[in-house]
Amino acid sequence: MADIQFDEEVDITDKVCPLTFVKAKVTLDELDDGQILAIRMNDGEPVQNVPRSIKDEGHQILKLADNEDGTYTLYVRKVGD
Known about the structure:
Helix 1 packs across helix 2 (45-56). The protein starts with 7 loop residues before the first strand and ends with a strand. The longest helix is centred in the middle third of the chain and has 12 residues, at 45-56. A four-stranded mixed beta sheet has the order 1-2-4-3, with helices on one face. The chain has a domain at 25-77. Strand 1 (8-11), helix 1 and strand 2 (36-42) form a beta-alpha-beta unit. 28% of the residues lie in helices and 31% in strands. The chain is α+β, with helices and mostly antiparallel strands.
C-alpha cells in the first residue's frame, strides 16, 4: 500500500465509533493544508462512517486500501478551512 506517500499515520483499530472519527479528526486537524493522513481502521462500522464523515468535513479521500488482514487504510488529503 506504499503507492501513496503520506505525511502522518494514525491507527484507530483500537477505537470504537464515534471515537474512531474523533481520533482521526484530531490528527487531521494537526496537519497543514495539502498534507496526507493515512488512517488504519477496522472493517465494518469505521470503514462505513469515517470516510463519509471526513468527506463531510470537506477533506479529499484519495484511496481506501484493503490491508487483507481485516483492516483498511484510508488516505486523506487535508483541505483548508
